[in-house]
Amino acid sequence: MTKVIQKILVVGGGSAGYLSALVLKTKLPELDIKVVQTEQLPIIGVGEGTTAILPGFLKDYLGLDQDELYRRVKPTWKLGIKFEWGLPNKSFNYTFANTFDTKINLLKKNNAYYYLNDLGPGSVPDCLMNCNKSPLGRLKSGQLHLDHSIFGFHLENRAFVSYLKSKILDLGVEIHDKKITKINKNSVGEISSLDLEDETSLKADLYIDCSGFNSILLGETLKEKYIDFRSSLFCDTAITGSWLRQEGEAILPYTTSETMNNGWCWRVELKDRVNRGYVFSSQFSSVEKALEEMKEKNPQMADDHRVIKFTTGRYQSFWVKNVAAIGNASGFVEPLEATGLHMICETSRRLVEALIDSNLQPSESIKLSTSEIIGELWDDIRWFLSLHYKFNKYLNTPFWKYCREQTDISGVQKIVDFYYENGPSPMVFHSLPRHSMFNYDGYIAMLVSLKAPCKFKNHLEEKDIDNFKRLSDRFLRHSEASFLDMSNALGLLEKSKFSFETP
The whole model's pTM is what? Predict the structure, then answer.
């Protein structure tokens, strides 16, 4: 009979380790949960973007106090991603709202068809991005409101990790800052204990591997099979840097993803600092060449920078025997859609649900089913990102020519073929990946915005076009008149308690 789980040991700190421990202790407070980490291991990144899952996950799923979160972490709001991508000298907005998958009563078709004819913007979040407004607005009554469904965060990673650490300590989670010297296994191949540098030993019923790229339990010790994504995603190196924001410089309400000669650059908007990162392929550029290109475009960037090497892919199963891996120890893709923290939230939530449903006695079949769901989520990200590369015609460098010719999109070829024949029809739903985090809105937004091949001829009546344009103008006027810019909105946060909610 499967052993009842009473003790859990999280291996590794950082956002993956602390957030996983927080989820486990919040939802299963009866468990004895410890974290073992090495503080000397550096935290990757300076600024980090998230998807729209994180604000609600922290507020609603974990029940964390919003006043404290905003006071201590000081996040800025992120309405989506502005892609300098697709056609030469063009850009487009990718919002967290269902901008494309919206059917307004006044119109005959989904918004996607009007975007296909370049008639956008067709939503308030799209307009907010265009006029650099925050998601904090005023109702006609004068009351402030904030719609948590349309934004993610930009975070300073160290502040976020420090906050998470304090929350798990408040819940009674023990943190051992010790180096692991030996990983012991029992006769059936499970982890039996971890020996530490002070000659003590830690034992648990379930081990959570949050050891980052090293994946010391799932990968190194249990030798779980690794599924490589490099036929779809060719980038393998990142350079991160930053600079202090100049006085009066606008805080943009989105992440910028800029096409570069041999990859792409992110720009993350923190209150006092701008974080830049260049993700590129070492097959086409050296670190020195990439840094030169990065600094040429960003002369204000400080000299201190960091180089990160990575391999994109995932482990076949994230939960094997008595080990469950979360974060980079489970899988990794470049942060083109800011999915890192999303996958930590999703994996820890699915793990907790499996433990609760199994009365803390998880069977092999529930481990397998949960692993299949997480694997499908990783694959969904892989195939979605592959479209970004396959159809980006912004530059004609050797790297981008290679991407257009060689990127493997086999996992979403059916979607691409359907789009070619039928345009942005919602009937594509049956071809979308199961458990997709991007769904119709994400896939169609990317295909339409990138001008992917499409033989479908869109026929819109003049009256319908006029109606859409009037709606678009109305959205824009509302956005300009009713929402605050980022600096004013963040300043308001500092002066008063967090008292605005979704209306």
Answer: 0.96
Total tally of structural domains belonging to the chain: 3
Predicted local confidence at residue 215, as pLDDT: 97
Same domain, 159 and 123: no
Angle at 335 between CA 330 and CA 340, to 5 degrees: 40
- pLDDT for 503 equals 44
Residues 445 and 337 in one domain: no
The DSSP result for 152-204, as a single string, is EEEEEHHHHHHHHHHHHHHTT-EEEE--EEEEEE-TTS-EEEEEETTS-EE--
| Distance separating alpha carbons of residues 252 and 134, to the nearest angstrom | 8
Distance CA 177, CA 193 (A): 16
Classify residue 126: in a domain, yes or no. Answer: yes
pLDDT at 502: 47
Same domain, 142 and 37: no
pLDDT value at residue 367: 98
Ranges in the chain, pLDDT < 70: 1-2, 39-46, 496-503
Q: In terms of domains, do 160 and 195 share one?
A: yes
CA–CA gap between residue 400 and residue 23 (Å, rounded): 41
